[in-house]
C-alpha cells in the first residue's frame, strides 16, 4: 500500500465539477456520467473503481476530449493546470492532449495502428509536441522504449504491432504516453486484457514511472485489487455517479458507502473461507429503470424510505461520500 | 435459430422502417408492380399499336404535343407511355425469372458443392471463378451469341452470369454449418442428406440470400436492358425498355423524349430495387448475424 | 510471404484452362455446322467441306484439338477474323490501347472523386453531406450506362455544343500511333490543338464509363472509413493530440484503403463490361466496339479470341491485386 497522500498547499492540478455526459438513444437518454466532481493534485495517484457502465472510462474520455457522436457533455468546471478546458478552442486542447495529459487504454494490441511501425508511432508524438526532427525523434524513441522496460529497444523500433506481445504493446503505449513528460497520466484498465503475470509487471512499471517523473496518475479499474497496489486515494463510481472518495487505506479498512462495502465483500480474496462468494443482488440501472432517488437504493442492504430522494454529498477535504446514511460519518476518524 | 420467431420479424420491420431510403424504395417498387399488373387496363393504347399519322409527337407539355400521347410517340407512332407501362411487366418478369433461376440453380450447386466436397466442389468452384472473371456483359453476349438473340435466351444468359454469387453464399453457409453440433446430432438421429441440407442448413443462409436476391433483381433488369439495347435481348416490337433505346441514338437530335423516358424508367426501377436491397441488408444484418 | 505468392499463382492455372475450354467450345456450341461457323459461309459443297474439315483440324480427336488450341493460344495465334482476314491478335493489339486509355481515365476519375467523397461522407456521418453523397452514389450505381451516355450527349454535345459526339479525336487530325494512347501521341506530335481535341473527346466517355466505379469506390470508401474510424488505434491517435486531418488522412485512411484497393482491382472486369457499351455509344474505336460488330457480323473467331483475351487480362489483374494486397498488409508481408 503506497504512503498516504501528502498535504496540498497548492491549487489542484485537475478540477472537475459536476461533469455530465449523456448519450441520447431511441429508448431514452443514458446518463453515462451524472454529476461527477473530482480533484487531483500534482503527483497524486487516484484510483477509480466501478463496474462496467459506471461511467469511469467515459468521464476520463470526456476530460481528454475523446468523446464522439452522439455524446453530449457539459460541466460546471473543467480545469487542468490552470487552463480552462471548457472554453478552450479545439486547437488549444489538442496542444495539451498527448503532451501534458496522456491516456492509455485497455486493449493494447488493437490500440496501436497495425500499418505503422513502433518507431513511426512514437516519433509522431515527439515531432508534433516537442518539435523534434526525424533523427532526434527516433533516438529518443529508443530511449523511451528502454525506460518502459523493453529489452533490445533498438531492434524493436521497426517492428509492427502484430509482431509484439500484449505486454510489449502496452509498454509501447506507455512509452507514447510519457514521451512528452505529461503532468497527468490516465490509465484506463491497463492490465485487464493482459496475462496475470504481465499484469503485475505493468502495474509495477506504472508505479515506478509515476515516482520517477512525479506525474499525477488516474488508474481506472473494475478490480479493487489492482487499484489497491498503486493508488493513494480511491474514488468509487456507480451508475455514473461518484459514491465515495477516500484515502486508499481508509477505504479498504472502513468504507463509508454501502456499495463500496459490498464491492469489498465480493472480492474473492476476502471470502475468508465462506461457502459462497458474496454477490450484490440486482443489476446496474439502465436507461429505462433509473431510480429517481439514490441510485444504489434498490440494491442496498441498508436502504430506508429517505433513500427515495437524491442522496446528498458529504465532503471533507479530499474525501466525499454520496449517501443518506453513510456507514461512518465523514469527519469522524474510523 | 433455424426458424424466425414473430418477434424477430417485428424487430426487422422496425429497423427497416427507420430507413427512409428503404421505405422509398419499397413504395416505388410496389407502385411499379401495380402499374405492371394493371398495364393492360391502365395503358391508353396497346404497346404495339402503330399510327403513322402521329409519329414522333413530342410530350404533352411541349408545343406540338397533345394530351392524347402524354409522353409522346416514337418513330412509328407508338405511344411511349403505354409502351413504358407494358415494359414494366417485361422488366419485372425478367427480374423475377432471372433471380428465381439463379437462386434455385445456385443453391442447388452450392449445397451440393459444400456438402459433397472433393472433385465436384473443385470443379464447381473453378467454373464459378471463370464466370466471375469474365466481364459480365461479355459472357452474356457470348451466351446469347451461342443461343441466339431473344428475350428467353437473354434471361438465361443473365442468370448464368449472376449464378456464382448464390453458389458462393450457399456453399459458405454449408461449410460453416456442417461442422456444427446440431447437424451432427441430426445426422446421428438418421436424417437423410437432403433433409439435412434443406431443413437445417438452408435457412441459415436465408438472410444473405434475400439481400443478394433483391440486389440481383436490379442487376438482372440492368443487364437485360443492356442486352436489349445491343439488339441481343428482347426483340422488337417487344416494349422492353432497353430495346426501346436501341434505335434511339439517331433521335438524339430530333426527339429527346424517345431517348429520355425509357432510360428514366430503367433508372427509377433499378434505383428502387437497390434502395430496397440496401435497406434489407442493413435491417437483416445485425438481426440475423450468426 | 512466398508461400502466399505461389498459392495465389497456383489458382491461376485452373482458371486459365477453364477460360480456354470455354473459348474452345464456343465455336462448337453455336448452332449449326462448325465448319460453316468458322468459314463464315453457308451451303459449302461436300468436297470443300472435307478440305476445310482437315484445314481446321476438326477431323482430329477432341483432346488433340484442344491441345493444339492451347499451344496456339500460348503462341499468340488466335485465328483470323472472318471479315477482315487479319489475325485476331493483331486486331486486338491495335484496338486495345484505345480501350485501356478510356478505362484508365475512367478509373482515375472514379478514384479522384470517389475516395474524397467516401471520406467526407464517413467523417460527416448522417449529415446532409453523407446522405446526399450516398444518394448520388446509389443513383450512379443504378444508372444504365448506355442511357447515361445518350443523355450526356443530348445535353453537352447537342444542346450545349461543348463536347464532340463521337470518336477519339477530330477527323481533321491524323496522329501517327506510336504508343497507341492518343493523349500521349497527340501531345508528342506537332499538330496544333491535337492534344486538346483528344482530351475533349475523352471527357464524356470517361464520365460515362467512370460513373459506376465512382459509385462503388465512394460507397466502399465510406464503409471502410466508418469501420476504421471506430477502431481503437484511431482513438489512440486522437489521444495523442494529433490534428483531425492527420487522424483521418494518415491513420484512418491508410487502413481503410486496404479493402478499397481490392475493390478497385476487381473493377477492371466491370470497366470492360462498361467499355463495351460506352464504346458503342461514342463510336470509340476500342475492343468493345470491335466485339459488338463481330457479333452482328457473325465473326466468331474474333468473338472467341476477344473473349479469351479480355478474360485473361482480368484474371491477371485480379492476381496482381491479390499480390498487392499481400504487400500492403504487413501481416502477410512478414
What is the alpha-carbon Rg of chain C in Å? 24 Å
Helix content of chain C: over 70%
**Overall pLDDT level of chain C:** 84
> Uncertain regions of chain A: pLDDT < 50 for 5+ in a row?
none
The coarse silhouette of chain C is globular
Order of helices and strands of chain A: EEEHEEEHEHHHHHEHEHEEHHEE
Number of strand segments of chain C: 0
Largest β-sheet summary of chain A? 8 strands, mixed
Silhouette of chain A? globular
Distance between the termini of chain A: 18 Å
Distance between the termini of chain C: 7 Å
Largest interface in this structure: B-C, 46 and 46 residues
Strand proportion of chain C: under 5%
Kindly provide the radius of gyration of chain A, computed on alpha-carbon positions and rounded to a whole number of angstroms.
21 Å
User: Could you list the spans of chain C in which at least 5 consecutive residues all have pLDDT below 50?
Assistant: none
Description:
The complex is a heterotrimer of chains A (334), B (290) and C (334). In chain A, the strands form two sheets. In chain A, strands 7-8-9-3-10-11-13-12 form an eight-stranded mixed β-sheet, sandwiched between helices. In chain A, strands 1, 2, 4, 5 and 6 form a five-stranded antiparallel β-sheet that branches. Helices cover 31% and strands 22% of the residues of chain A. Chain A is an alpha/beta fold and 334 residues long. Chain A starts with 13 loop residues before the first strand and ends in a 12-residue tail after the last strand. Chain A has helices spanning 56-64, 90-96, 108-111, 118-129, 134-147, 153-156, 166-178, 196-213, 224-230, 248-253, 258-266; strands at 14-25, 28-40, 45-49, 72-74, 77-80, 83-84, 101-104, 184-188, 216-221, 233-238, 241-247, 313-316, 319-322. In chain A, helix 8 links the parallel strand 8 (184-188) and strand 9. Helices cover 72% and strands 0% of the residues of chain B. Chain C has helices at residues 2-29, 34-39, 46-55, 62-75, 88-123, 128-142, 145-159, 182-188, 194-229, 232-239, 244-282, 287-296, 300-328, 330-333. Helices cover 77% and strands 0% of the residues of chain C. In chain C, helix 9 crosses helix 11 and helix 12 (287-296) runs antiparallel to helix 13 (300-328). Chains in contact: A-C, B-C.
